[in-house]
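Model the whole thing, not chain by chain.
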Amino acid sequence: MTWLSIIISGIVTYFSRMAMVALIDREMLGTKVKEVLNYVPAAVFPAIIFPGIFFNDFGSFVEITDPKIYGAIVALVVGFYSRSVIATIVSGLLSYWFIIFFLLR
Amino acid sequence: MLSKSKIFFKGIVAVLPHMLSVIPFGIITGAIGIELGFDPILVYATSLIIFGGASQIIFMQLLSGGASSLVAITSVGVINSRHLLYGAVLSEYLEKLSFIKKLLISYFIVDQGFAESNKYIKQNKNLSNPHYYVLGTGVTLWFCWQLSTISGIILGSFIPDELGLKFAIPLTFLAIIVNDLRKLDHVFVMLVSGFASLILFNAPFKSYIILSPIVALIAAFIMLRLKK
């Protein structure tokens, strides 16, 4: 079942890459659609980020003291000023580990 | 006039700085797949068959969290719909290729490769073989992605659970959109999506992952309307 899902996901993804290049006339995609597609990353990724920070493994809200919230704030600030992918991830993880291994022990 | 191989090589060089983010992202993708409990071969198969970092992580996260295949596949489609935009822009430069070549080069259309190709081809309008540039960026990113996910898969089996590596998932996606945080219109769409996901999180079949982007895109559409 998982294999089948991977293969179908692969076909769907390949189609998203290939459709405009090989099948569909690019004029079919109006300027309005293109403008909206510009926002796909902004529309998709927060739906992964917010629950990843504010929900625990059991699907309920974390407490305001949860280390993930503070790790995310550090990552957000570092990312905003550094504009670096690595600095964002590393600063978030390090501050998270600092809290769970040093402050909470 | 630049030769085909020189254009290909220029494409390779153009994406090298991106390796700083692509390689760690690939390692995280592989390691998270293992952390979520998937078979190493399965984790690698997502890199080969889906070949789209963000969507691979979401796909595995959803399936391991008990989402149905339909939800997992649909969210991969939503996340990767941005390729339609890349294809629409690149199709102008790839027009002269044969159908088969178009089919082959499509597999290598990736975010960073698209960004660099679009920049270069716009600056060098009378390039005779622009597709070699696209191919140079795409093939390089493909190799690095495969190798880095394999490294992540190997590393993943050594990383202890206590580290809570799952937290790397939201951080990775935060890093992807961090460049757009200075654009207010994008931030608005992000906030709509984020709050929608919190409200819809317990909707059946993990459908929040599809519904929240749709709500946010509708908000984006309305915002564009009001702007004019």
